[in-house]
Every structure is written in structure tokens, then in C-alpha cells.
């Protein structure tokens, strides 16, 4: 005889007048009948696969020594647990029909080494996929592209060494991605750069892999709510100061990925195999790293800047900014020069010197609040093109130096105006009393030389002539110059310098 279903037993009990034996009342029979009729495994439902346990829309086949997915699978299955079995290959035909209700598929601990790129065509509404603790070696192109509603993907404790950048295409709702304890030497972190490929991702676990370097600049640019759940511990990272500043910034912000795994955040010193704590690099040779200042922005007069509210609270209910002057900038706008953007950033236009200072961003979340500070430095000169213009002090200094150089050139490098000052037998010209009188005078004081005679100053040859050709009545007559090595120098005119640099006009 065929196995008796619960409906048959209930039907027979009902035919006996509600008693299992003649004359024995069973008050629970109406309740069991109702449960059997409502259960998907009841009279109108399918049969539970062998070696599986069925409860409502949950199908559990864990630890059933299965080498393949049992068939047929009821179409109303919502949770399918196939963990701890021997299903080594997941082909495209594992689900012969569309399982529109399936939202959780558990395949961990199966020795799974192959997953077809068409394996998830019949489960478009899957939200939770567990492929952990298997033998997967690569994530192929467009492997999960059919799972547009997937939210949690567990791939930890595999042998994955290659990750194709298109493997996570079309996963617009993915929130948590676990890739720890694999052999990944490079992960395409550019998927997180602009937030368009994985816009909802809030947790990325890359711990215990083979990462040796990180694009620290790109990671610093990630929003804080994603860096709060970016796990990088347990990798053989090379020590450098940018890496230290990234981790130190996470410690200052109390990010979970840093605070919960401080001892496991290790790196290798350059040229050695010595592993040290990343946070222990502060002031340590040979790197001697120091922490960078938090959220400091530099700008110039007239610029427009945007201050980011880098909060780790995702889904904040409200936020507002407070300027250095104590003015509140709310969501509905600002005072004309400051405005709050849709993403919570503060935009400042036409910067002025008084706009410099520390700005505070107040964020209210569902569970806690957070306050962020951004220091703005405004330089007191404008920026034109790729280079800065010279400020006033620097321009003045350069002008003074150029003026002194020109005066010295004019004083000492003025060429002789006599064209006849050549010949080896000419006598040395008498030295003038005042260099300034001969150089700076508006009236030429060099006479045109006579051929065969040495050049002489007109002031030296004219009796009684004074500075700039003026007659000096009280001037001291000068004796004729002596010739020879011990010739005395001519007595200098005491008024020569003062007459040149005096403010009194000179009358000729």
C-alpha cells in the first residue's frame, strides 16, 4: 500500500466521527486538519524530497550526503539549505523550473568547485546566497549578473585567486560581500570608486588574502560608512606612511574595521620579512610616519569649494552645518554664499578671508548622532590659471632687488665715451673726485678727445669749474697732477655727492 499522507489520516479520522478509535474523542483533530490544509505540504502540495526536512516553505537537506541537488523541488520553496553535502558542481539545470519564491540558497561546505554562469537564471528573486567554505578558484565574467535582487553574498574560505571586474555587474542591491580567507592578490577596488557599480554596498570583507598594496588614495575618497566596514586585516601589506595614515584615520574616527582588529592590522617593513603593527609605525624608523591632519581643505580668494560631511552613519535622518561665525546652514539653503547640497555637503561660493575657519557638520542618525569638523584655509591671493600670482610683499622685494642691480650696472659698467682712448703710450687719466658727479650728471663731463692725447675730464681741465659744470668761487685750486707711482690723489670736493642727491634743483 502507498504511504499514508497526513491528509489521508485526517480524512479517515473525520470519517470515524472525529475519533481515532471508536468511542475515543480526539479534540486536536480539527486543529491538525486546519494545519494540514494550510501547509504547502498538505493535500494540495507536493511531497518532501527524500533525506530532507520540510517545514512550511523551508526545505532543509543539510548533512544528507547528497551529491546533487534533489529533484523535484517544490515551486513554493523559499529557503533551500543544501549545506554540508557533496555537491561539487552547480550546473544550469539544477533547478529545472522557475523558483519564483526562493530568496535564500545555502551551499556551504560542499567541496563546490564549479558554478555555471547560467546557474541562477531560474532564481531571479534570490536575496541571500551562501557559497562559503568550498573550492571555488575564480569568479568568472558575469557570474552573478542574473541576481539583480541579491543583498548578501558569502564567498569566504574558498580558493579564489582571480576576480573578474564584471562578476558583480547588475548587483545594484548588494549590501554585504564576504571574500575573506581566499588567495586574492588584487581586487578591483575601482568598482567602489564612483559608487555606480555597487551603489548599496556597505560591507566588504577582504581579510586574510594576499593583498600586498592598496590604492590608499581611492580608499581615502570612499565614504566613511563604507570604510567603516572595509576589512583588510590579515594581508601581507607593505608598510608605508599612506597606509599608516589610512589606518590611523580610521582609529580617530572609531571605525569598526580598525577598532575591532587593531592587533591583526599588520604590515611588512621594506626590505625585510618582519611584520609589525600598522599603527606602531608612528615615529618608528625607517619610515618615521606621522598622522595627517583630519579634514583640512585649502582654497584661494574667489574660489568655490565643497565641504564633505564624511559621516559613517548611513541613512541619516537630518544634518546641518555650523559656520565658524556660528551661523546654521539648514537643508532649505544658506545665506547666498553657503548652501547645503542634497548629499549633505556644504558649498561655499566666492570665498572671502572671513570664510576661513572650522566648520561643523551635525548628523542625526536612527541610533546615534555624530559631529564632524572641517578646517578651511583661505589664502589671501587669487589663483589664475595653473600658477599662483605674486603677492604684494614678494613683488615689492623683487622690485627693490632689480632696482639696486640696475643702479650698480649703470654706475660701474657704463662704457667710456672717448673713441680715442687707445694706444700704449698714453698717460693714465686723472681720477675724478666723485664717481657720482661724472656718471649721474645730466651734462656730459667728458670732452671729445684729440687724437694722440689722453682722454681728460672737462671738469679737470677747466679752471674754476665746479660740479656739473658750475663755477665754484670758493673752490680750492688743485695743483697739476704728479706723474709716477707715488702721485698724490686729488682732494675731493665735499659738495660733490650732496649736490647730486640733493632735493634742491640744480641751476646751470
TrEMBL record:
The keyword Secreted does not apply. Residues 494-508 have a biased composition (Low complexity). This is AMGO1 protein. One of its GO terms (cellular component) is membrane. It is found in: Membrane. Residues 286-373 form the Ig-like domain. Keywords: Cell adhesion, Disulfide bond, Glycoprotein, Immunoglobulin domain, Leucine-rich repeat, Membrane, Repeat, Signal, Transmembrane, Transmembrane helix. Residues 435-444 have a biased composition (Polar residues). The gene is Amigo1. The chain crosses the membrane at residues 393-413. Residues 1-46 form the signal peptide. Gene3D superfamilies: Immunoglobulins, Ribonuclease Inhibitor. SMART domains: IG, IGc2, LRR_TYP. Residues 1-21, 432-508 are annotated as: Disordered. It comes from the Eukaryota. The keyword Transmembrane applies. It is a single-pass type I membrane protein. Belongs to the immunoglobulin superfamily. AMIGO family. One of its GO terms (biological process) is brain development.
Amino acid at each position: 500500500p502507498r504511504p499514508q499522507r497526513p491528509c489521508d489520516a485526517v480524512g479517515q479520522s473525520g470519517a470515524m466521527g472525529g475519533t481515532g478509535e471508536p468511542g475515543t474523542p480526539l479534540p486536536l483533530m480539527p486543529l491538525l486538519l486546519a494545519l494540514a490544509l494550510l501547509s504547502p505540504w498538505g493535500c494540495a502540495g507536493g511531497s518532501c524530497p527524500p533525506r530532507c526536512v520540510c517545514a512550511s516553505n523551508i526545505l532543509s537537506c543539510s548533512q544528507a550526503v547528497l551529491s546533487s541537488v534533489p529533484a523535484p523541488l517544490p515551486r513554493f520553496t523559499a529557503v533551500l539549505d543544501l549545506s554540508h553535502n557533496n555537491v561539487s558542481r552547480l550546473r544550469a539545470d539544477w533547478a529545472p523550473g522557475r523558483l519564483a519564491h526562493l530568496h535564500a540558497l545555502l551551499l556551504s561546505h560542499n567541496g563546490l568547485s564549479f558554478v555555471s554562469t547560467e546557474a541562477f537564471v531560474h532564481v531571479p528573486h534570490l536575496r541571500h546566497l551562501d557559497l562559503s567554505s568550498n573550492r571555488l578558484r575564480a569568479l568568472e565574467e558575469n557570474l552573478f549578473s542574473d541576481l539583480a535582487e541579491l543583498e548578501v553574498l558569502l564567498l569566504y574560505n574558498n580558493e579564489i585567486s582571480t576576480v573578474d571586474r564584471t562578476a558583480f555587474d547588475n548587483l545594484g542591491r548588494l549590501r554585504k560581500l564576504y571574500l575573506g580567507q581566499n588567495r586574492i592578490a588584487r581586487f578591483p577596488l575601482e568598482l567602489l570608486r564612483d559608487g555606480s557599480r555597487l551603489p548599496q554596498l556597505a560591507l566588504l570583507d577582504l581579510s586574510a588574502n594576499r593583498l600586498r598594496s592598496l590604492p590608499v588614495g581611492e580608499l581615502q575618497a570612499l565614504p566613511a560608512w563604507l570604510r567603516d566596514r572595509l576589512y583588510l586585516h590579515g594581508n601581507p601589506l607593505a608598510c608605508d606612511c599612506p597606509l599608516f595614515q589610512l589606518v590611523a584615520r580610521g582609529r580617530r574616527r572609531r571605525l569598526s574595521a580598525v577598532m575591532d582588529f587593531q592587533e591583526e592590522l599588520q604590515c611588512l617593513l621594506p626590505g625585510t620579512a618582519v611584520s609589525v603593527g600598522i599603527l606602531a609605525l608612528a615615529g618608528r624608523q625607517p619610515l618615521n610616519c606621522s598622522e595627517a591632519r583630519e579634514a583640512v581643505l585649502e582654497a584661494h580668494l574667489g574660489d568655490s569649494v565643497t565641504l564633505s560631511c564624511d559621516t559613517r552613519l548611513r541613512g541619516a535622518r537630518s544634518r546641518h552645518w555650523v559656520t565658524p561665525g556660528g551661523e546654521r546652514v539648514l537643508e532649505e539653503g544658506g545665506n547666498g554664499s553657503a548652501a547645503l547640497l542634497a548629499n549633505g555637503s556644504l558649498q561655499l561660493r566666492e570665498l572671502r578671508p572671513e570664510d576661513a575657519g572650522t566648520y561643523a557638520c551635525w548628523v542625526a542618525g536612527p541610533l546615534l548622532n555624530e559631529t564632524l569638523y572641517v578646517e578651511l584655509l583661505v589664502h589671501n591671493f587669487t589663483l589664475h590659471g595653473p600658477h599662483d600670482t605674486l603677492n604684494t610683499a614678494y613683488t615689492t622685494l623683487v622690485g627693490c632687488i632689480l632696482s639696486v642691480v640696475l643702479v650698480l650696472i649703470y654706475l660701474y659698467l657704463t662704457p667710456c665715451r672717448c673713441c680715442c682712448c687707445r694706444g700704449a703710450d698714453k698717460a693714465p687719466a686723472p681720477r675724478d673726485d666723485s664717481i657720482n658727479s661724472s656718471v649721474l650728471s645730466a651734462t656730459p663731463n667728458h670732452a671729445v678727445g684729440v687724437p694722440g692725447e689722453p682722454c681728460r675730464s672737462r671738469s679737470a681741465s677747466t679752471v674754476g669749474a665746479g660740479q656739473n659744470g658750475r663755477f665754484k668761487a670758493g673752490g680750492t685750486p688743485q695743483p697739476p697732477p704728479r706723474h709716477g707711482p707715488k702721485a698724490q690723489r686729488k682732494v675731493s670736493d665735499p659738495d660733490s655727492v650732496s649736490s647730486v642727491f640733493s632735493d634742491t634743483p640744480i641751476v646751470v
